[in-house]
Structure formats: structure tokens, C-alpha cells
Amino acid sequence: MHKLAKLDHLYVWHPFTQMRDWLREEPIVIVRGRGPFIYDVYGRKYLDGNSSIWTNLHGHNHPVINKAIMAQLKKIAHSSALGLANEPASLLAKELVRIANSPIEKFRVHRKSTKPLCKVFYSDDGSTSIEVALKMAYEFARRSGLNKQPRFLSLSQAYHGDTIGAVSLGHIPLFHAAFRGLTFRTDAVMSPYCYRCRFNRAKPERADARLYRQCHWECVDEVERAFENAKKQGRPYSAFVLEPLIQGAAGMVPQPRGWLRKIAEITRHYSALLIADEVLTGFGRCGFPEEWFDCQPGQLKDYLLACHHEDVMPDLLCLAKGITGGYLPMAATLTTMEIFEAFLGEYSEFKTFFHGHSYTANQLGAAAALANIALLDKKESRHQRAKLQLALQKELSRLWNNQHVGDIRQVGLIAGVELVKDWHTRELFDLRDQVGFRVCRAMAKRGVLTRPIGDVIVIMPPYCTTADQVSHIIDALEESITEVLSE
User: Fold this and answer.
1) pLDDT at position 146, please?
2) CA 66 to CA 200: how far, in whole Å?
3) Of 228, 146, 144, 134, nearest to 184 (Cα)?
4) Residue 78 covered by a domain
5) Is-contact 143 104, C-beta < 8 A?
6) Which residue stretches of 360-466 are H helix?
């Protein structure tokens, strides 16, 4: 065993990992990366099949982001945001506001009720960006007189992070049940999980379940019913928290087209705030809608946020993961002037937003984020992302021939492949059989690294991944499924 692997076994406790299993074998120890590849201590090369847990956008060791960080490092690495401003964080805030408000400026639907996002609060990661949004929404509801005891609504199987407020919004028993004694209560409404929806009357087909579903939008009706019942009880919801277009840790569960807009309209009707968790979905990860590919080159619009796909503007927008291109931990929560003004007052009123982090508005992270956005804004980046989206779609279609592939769910540059005992019945494997983990271990032997969510295999490569490399990823997945499930 390599000496670094021994040190890991001696001292490191890994997240979401059963350490007894971990200690039984030598781990893969990563030492460097370039483009879509990462390399271990023995020089073995792997395709980064899930962008290092959904964070890396442009590939590892990108010269533009490297240069931006090095230039900032020659100036200053970090100074406090408590009582001080700094150059890159100020510039980045302007860019984030520009990106967030692009539907108002360019997109086909302009709603008079839409309020622009104009203020940026920095934090460290996805969980903290959610905590910020929760605290802002909670105090805004109280100060505006909308609700003296603010309540929150989220989706079943929701995951919004691992800090206590974020866990309170979560509804995945395996992750969250153990901590219920620490959390505050939130309510859940059904997730629009078409493949396993009790209202979907369609029999299984060899296609994404959203495309052949037979229902009457009962999932939307249940959301409206929850809002109405809360109102009748005199305990209305202050905010609805969701991941737009696709729920990540729920198993890459995508929403049928139109669901997000319908939910936003219901939330507005009941005077609740809409909190969009775009930690996973932001910065181009959700790709482009189908009609994008029919546009003339001069008419191409970018879709850097999932909300843009359905012309939805949230009241609070949470960003992290890809914000720095996968380089440094950083997050941001964007909100409206109306919410911001609820915290303004004389010092003696103590209306300050009493929340902060040591590394808030870190200069190195902000410099990396500015370089990341500059890359995303390039025409070449849009075209590369479009090519990757089409390559994923083409290669994933091969997997429908496997009887253990129940559903293939793709939203832009995100894909989840759900493994089942037999696609005709949708019967689940026992989680204790670790089918998903075993398939991913077999993929690693074939030079592809990813991590499952239960028995859903996540495919989410960096944007620089070529069509041939996508083909290799799917080859590895296909062969690994056969290997594991023929044992």
C-alpha cells in the first residue's frame, strides 16, 4: 500500500463513507489533474466522470483560471469582509447579478411582477448558501408582517446540504433521520419523480419516463393543496425551497417540462418566497433546451441558470459548487432589494443581518469565479457545452438495451442512470447489495471515476470532455453493469 494511502487510513474520516469498508482496501489517492483527467499516485489516468462531485466545469488545471488565481495571489489571498470590501468580490457580485437577471433583459417572457436579484451575500459552500437564504427569508417574513412564525416547504427526497438548517429542509431518511432531534420542522410535498410517480399510469418504456408519462399534473395539485391547507390553518408557508429542473441527491430526479413555472406561479399566488437551490444546477450545468439547437448562430442565448429554462426568477438564489469552476470553496446567496431593505435601519435598532463566515468574499475564490464566468461567456464555451450535451444524449441511448437499466434521466450536462432488477417491473435492488457502488468500482478499473446515489449512476463530466471520451465513459458503465450483475 502506498504511504499516502496508509496515512489516509490512519488519520482521515471521509464524508458519506462507511469507514469500515473503506479501511479494507487501498484507496485511490489523487495527486494531479489536467483537463477531464485526474491521476493517482501510481500514475494511473482516470476520466473524471462526475466532475469531482459536481464542481469542476472546464477541466482540471485550466490555464485561464490558474492565471487568475496566481495574479490574485501576488496581491492578497484573503482579507475579512467584516467591515472591509475587496476588489474581486465587488467585481464578482456585479457579474452574478448580471447572470441572474438575464431573463429580464433577454428572454422571451417578461413578467411585470418579477423583481430583480440585486444583492449578493457570500459564504463558503452550498449548505451555507442555503442557511443564509433561510435566515433571510425567516426574518423578512417576520419583519414584513407576512408571518410571525415562518414555515418552510420543500420537496420529498430533498437534499440541500448538511448544516442544521439545510438538514431541516431535507427529506431523505437515510441522510437526515438521525439528526431530527437537532432540526426544526419543515413540510414536504411530492417530488415530480415521473419514473416512480404513483399518478403515472404509463407502463415502462425504453425512454425517459418524462416523455411517455400519463398523468394530470397531480404533483402540481398536491403543491397547491399544501399551500391552501396551510393558509386555511392560519399557518401559511413563508418560502418554498427547491432545486430547479433536477433534484441531485434524490437520485438525479428531473422535473417534467413546465413543472417549475407552474410551481413558481403557485408560490407567488400564496405570497411565499421562492428559494432556488442552484448549487448543482447553476453555471451552465443544465445545458440548453431542445429549441436552442434550432436557433441561428446569431440568436443563440446562454442558459447559465436552471431557472432561466422556464423564465422563473426566484426571490433568493443559492449558488456554489461550479461558481469557481471547481477550484475553491465559495458560495453566494442573491436576493431582491425588498428583502435587503428589511435589514436596513439605525444601528440602535439592531436590524443587521447577524450572520457571517471567516472566509466570506475570499479574494482567491472571487478571482477564480471571475475567470470561470469569463470562460462561460465565450461563444466557444457555449458550443462545446452543446456538443457535450448531444454526445451524452447519443451515447446514453445505447444503455436502453440493458435489461437492468430502468430509466435514463438527462438534463443538459447531467445524467443519472437508474439500475433495477428488471426494467419491465422497475423492481429495486436491496441497497445493502451496493449494486451502484460495485458498478462504480468496476468503472474505476476501466479508467472512469464517478460515485453513485444508491443505484443511480451519475454521469456529469467536465465541459471540456470530448465525444470520444464520453463514449469511453458509457462503454465503461455498460461493461461494468454487465460484470457486476452477471456475478
Assistant:
1) 80
2) 48
3) 134
4) no
5) no
6) 363-376, 379-396, 435-445
Radius of gyration, alpha carbons of the chain:
22
Q: Based on the domain organization, do 423 and 362 belong to the same domain?
A: no
Whether 186 shows a pLDDT value over 50: the answer reads yes
Number of domains in the chain: 2
Tell me if 186 sits within 8 A of 169, measured CB to CB.
yes
Is 398 in the same domain as 312?
no
DSSP state at residue 311: T
Say if residue 321 is in the same domain as residue 469: no
Residues 23, 113, single domain; the answer is no
CA 286-132-112 angle, to 5 degrees, is 60
Question: Does the structure show a pLDDT above 90 at 309?
Answer: yes
Do 392 and 459 meet the contact criterion of CB atoms below 8 Å apart?
yes
Q: Any idea what the CATH number is for the domain that residue 281 is in?
A: 3.40.640.10
358-374: pLDDT as tens digits = 999 999 999 999 999 99
Ranges assigned E (strand) in 5-102: 30-34, 37-40, 45-48
Residues spanned by the domain of 441: 3-61+381-485
Q: Is residue 113 part of a domain?
A: yes
Q: Of 349, 377, 405, which residue constitutes the final position of a domain?
A: 377
Task: For residues 94 and 54, state if they share a domain.
Answer: no
Whether residue 390 is found in the same domain as residue 418: yes
Has residue 299 got a pLDDT over 70? no
State the pLDDT at residue 297.
53
Q: What kind and span of H or E run contains 34?
A: strand 30-34
Could you tell me the pLDDT band of residue 142, with boundaries at 50, 70 and 90? Answer: very high
Q: How far apart are CA 405 and CA 206, in angstroms?
A: 9
Distances (CA, A) of 144 to 275, 339, 343, 346, 473: 17, 9, 10, 17, 51
Supply the pLDDT for residue 301: 67
Give the CATH number of the domain where residue 19 resides: 3.90.1150.10
SS3 9: helix
Per-residue pLDDT band for 251 (boundaries 50, 70, 90) equals very high
Q: What is the grid cell recorded at 175?
A: 441522510
Banded model confidence at residue 205, pLDDT cuts 50, 70, 90? very high
Terminal-to-terminal C-alpha distance of the chain: 27
Residues 6 or more apart from 290 whose CB is under 8 A from it?
A: none
Angle at 410 between CA 409 and CA 416, to 5 degrees: 50
What is the length of the chain?
487
325 and 443 both lie in a single domain: no
Residue 271's alpha-carbon distances to 263, 274, 378, in angstroms, are 13, 9, 38
